[in-house]
UniProtKB/TrEMBL annotation:
UniProt keywords, alphabetically: Hydrolase
BP-aspect Gene Ontology terms: carbohydrate metabolic process; N-acetylglucosamine catabolic process
Gene coding for it: nagB_1
Superkingdom per UniProt: Bacteria
Lineage: Bacteria, Pseudomonadati, Planctomycetota, Planctomycetia, Planctomycetales
Organism: Stratiformator vulcanicus
GO terms for MF: glucosamine-6-phosphate deaminase activity
Name of the protein: Glucosamine-6-phosphate deaminase
Glucosamine/galactosamine-6-phosphate isomerase domain: residues covered: 4-227
Length: 244
């Protein structure tokens, strides 16, 4: 728990930079699982700064984003492809061929096969080294809404009403928020060798307490992180307020 969110963003960015540098020294790739939303923005701006001012290279980095709305065109305002370009990819030296973000433009019948391929690509890359996560007020990680079991994999899901309300301002009204999304599963996330979850603000305090201290249940998918051997949660004081 830290009083200053930017302290947390810096610490997390430093850990990611350390992995990238270690792997580069071994001539290996670093595989990152990435999140969107307001929470990781500071981590990405710090990674951009490390690239610009301190020579951190992303040439050996492979990324897999957690999720994308469905349907969604990559250039739309709310697209996670656009988000990642604006906050990270346009400002670093990553090879575009190494970037993976679920495709919101597919026909619905193409999605199951696409999702299997997404899992295969993660496997072929050697698995995820560090998975970055936020948490939604429903207890979702990625878009694994309540009801998502521990062995779920990448798939098309229906967004929870609360999640759509929380996204309403981005879409100029809850009625414009897509009803579905493609997301990595809980099992995909648990497969990462290291998990870093971040939450900021009072609005997250209740769900954070349940996720960390409550019983493990698919009703709150973030509770499955309690079973991960190498998961850390970074909270500002407001998000930590309901912990006992
Ligand atoms: C985003 C994602 C979501 C968000 C969560 C918190 O890729 O997978 O689980 O991390 O909804 O969103 P923010 O950070 O906007 O509060």
């Amino acid at each position: 728990v830290a009083s200053n969110p930017s302290q947390i963003s810096k610490e997390v960015a430093d850990r990611i930079a350390e992995l990238i540098t270690e792997r580069a020294a071994e001539g290996k790739q670093a595989v990152l699982g990435l999140a969107t939303g307001s929470t990781p923005v500071g981590v990405y701006s710090e990674l951009v700064r490390l690239h610009r001012d301190e020579g951190l290279s992303f040439q050996n980095v492979v990324t897999f984003n957690l999720d994308e709305y469905f349907p969604m065109l990559p250039d739309e305002l709310q697209s996670y492809v656009r988000f990642m370009r604006e906050h990270l990819f346009d400002h670093i030296d990553i090879d575009p061929a190494n970037v993976h973000i679920p495709d919101g433009t597919l026909a619905v019948e193409q999605v199951p096969d696409y999702c299997r391929q997404y899992e295969l690509k993660i496997e072929e890359a050697g698995g995820i080294d560090i998975q970055l996560l936020g948490i939604g007020r429903t207890g979702h990680i990625g878009f694994n809404e309540p009801g998502s079991g521990r062995s779920t994999l990448t798939r098309l899901i229906t967004l929870d009403r609360v999640t759509r309300v929380d996204a309403a301002s981005d879409f100029f009204g809850a009625e414009h928020v897509p009803r579905r999304a493609i997301t990595m599963g809980v099992g995909t996330v648990l497969g990462a060798r290291e998990v870093i979850m971040i939450a900021f603000g009072e609005g997250k305090s209740q769900i954070v307490a349940k996720a960390i201290e409550g019983p493990i249940t698919p009703a709150i998918p973030a509770t499955f992180l309690q079973e991960h051997p190498n998961a850390r949660v970074y909270l500002d004081e407001a998000a930590a307020a309901a912990l006992t």
